[in-house]
Design a protein that fits this description.
Blueprint lengths: L3 H5 L30 H11 L6 E5 L2 E4 H18 L6 H24 L6 H14 L4 H11 L4 H21 L8 H15 L3 E11 L6 H19 L4 H8 L10 E6 L5 H7 L11 E2 L3 E12 L4 E12 L7 H16 L5 H8 L10 E5 L6 H9 L9 E3 L2 E14 L2 H30 L3 E3 L5
Helix pairs in contact: 2-3, 3-4, 4-7, 5-6, 8-15
Length: 457
């Protein structure tokens, strides 16, 4: 079983003096604990829910699961997805999904109880202390005070965390600890990867786009083509392509000289790949027409995909916590103001980060350094991955608070053989553990008595 410190970082306490770097938690065993930013909403919800008619929707070995049990979890998920910009399923589908999840959890807890698996108060307190440290809070008392200030029920919260730790322990014992990945498994996976990428290439392209409006007239098409032809003529005369892109392109990447980045060829539009496949590095393509307009493409780099690489990003951010004094919308409004100051050159990102960010990186102007994929929590990583180099994001929310993010630079870094094998080993272990868990929980449920009652309601 993972240490309690590892497990506990999967649940962060309510935001207060949050200065931790938004690093992703350990991936196994999977412990999905309630998000702090919605603690108040989750714990206040039952006040209203309990006024409605409650009834049993399922029995697990005679232990009931009520409609309110499902609705409380459902509200929590909806609140989390809302902060992360995730589209939820329909109410009916979500109700069924949550009910099945609760049944699985009850089966696991009952199995743990029968097998004598326990989490003592001292173990639970250790986990909670670790969560307090992650939130830059000073021990259990401040954690409890902050949680209750957001409307949470501390006793219920403790038991919920205890249940998560018990389920993690039983899953580790029954599933994860039994998963084995041999050297031959790793060898075969690497061979399969090479076979999949054989003959494939990574390319780096720059573009100049002369945009067309929706449903353009013949005159608008002719004028745009003429403009594109003038740009292409300049490019082939030796005028710097990056400067031409900055001056003439209508694409969002014009500020970067039109550079779109080194990536697998299949991650570029087919039109771009076909237009550049016969070019030599440094050459520009003929004019290409798409629904967006007319494109001129330059091949900057081409290399074999057989070399294992990862794309590292250098990022900086400004973090504002969500507190009783500063709610999410107020934090976003402040960060929008900072973004406007940066884009109008009234201030710099680094200066604003030093003055306002509560993250430990503030002293470095918000600089988080070079990072590899998977280092940050998913909601942070999604924004980082989609953001072009040199651009400042819109304010967004993670479990640590509200961020303003800039990707300063990106680079492709070769991965050593050892690192590549370890990455493949972890992928195989995670895959095998997931498959084993599905079979194990299905068998455990098959041996339990599960009866649905009014579940459709």
């Amino acid at each position: 079983m993972d240490t309690l410190a590892q497990i506990s970082v999967k649940k962060r306490a309510p935001a207060a003096k949050a200065k931790a770097k938004p690093i992703a938690p350990a991936s196994t065993p999977e412990v999905k604990l309630p998000e702090p930013s919605v603690a108040a909403a989750v714990n206040l919800a039952p006040v209203n829910v309990l006024r409605e008619v409650d009834y049993i929707v399922a029995l697990v070995n005679s232990e009931p699961i009520t409609r309110n049990d499902v609705l409380i979890r459902q509200k929590r998920l909806q609140a989390q997805w809302a902060t992360q910009g995730v589209s939820p399923p329909t109410e009916q589908e979500l109700f069924k999904r949550v009910l099945e999840q609760l049944i699985d959890e009850r089966v696991m807890l009952q199995m743990a109880k029968d097998d004598g698996v326990r989490i003592s108060d001292s173990q639970l307190n250790e986990a909670l202390v670790n969560m307090a440290r992650q939130s830059q809070l000073e021990g259990l008392r401040e954690l409890q005070a902050t949680y209750e200030a957001e409307g949470g029920n501390w006793s219920n919260y403790r038991e919920e965390i205890r249940g998560e730790l018990i389920r993690a322990q039983i899953r580790e014992r029954e599933v994860s600890a039994r998963v084995r990945v041999s050297e031959s498994d790793v060898d075969q996976a690497l061979q399969d990867q090479k076979a999949d990428t054989k003959g494939s290439q990574d390319i780096n392209l720059a573009q100049i786009l002369v945009a067309l409006p929706d449903n353009p007239t013949p005159t608008e098409v002719a004028l745009a083509r003429e403009r594109a032809q003038k740009v292409l003529t300049e490019a082939r005369r030796g005028v710097d392509f990056a400067k031409l892109a900055e001056q003439a392109s209508d694409a969002a990447d014009k500020a970067k000289g039109g550079v779109m980045g080194l990536r697998a060829a299949d991650r570029y539009p087919t039109l771009f790949v076909e237009a550049t496949k016969e070019l030599k590095v440094g050459e520009a393509s003929d004019i290409q027409r798409s629904d967006a307009g007319f494109h001129i493409l330059k091949l900057l780099e081409r290399q074999s995909s057989s070399t294992a690489t990862i794309v590292q990003s250098r990022v900086r951010h400004i973090l504002l916590p969500i507190t009783a004094q500063l709610n999410e919308e107020q934090a976003k409004a402040q960060l929008r103001n900072y973004k406007a100051q940066i884009e109008s050159n009234r201030s710099t990102f680094a200066a604003l980060a030093r003055e306002h960010s509560v993250d430990g990186s503030a002293a470095q102007g918000g600089d988080l350094g070079w990072t590899t994929p998977g280092l940050f929590v998913p909601e942070f990583e999604r924004v980082m991955s989609a953001l072009p180099t040199g651009k400042v994001s819109e304010p967004f929310t993670s479990r640590f608070g509200v961020h303003l993010l800039e990707v300063v630079d990106r680079k492709a870094v070769a991965v050593s053989v050892r690192e590549q094998r370890e990455a493949v080993r972890n992928q195989l272990r995670e895959k095998k553990a997931g498959e084993a868990y599905v079979l194990w929980i299905a068998d455990a449920r098959g041996r339990a008595f599960v009866e649905y009652k009014n579940a459709a309601q």
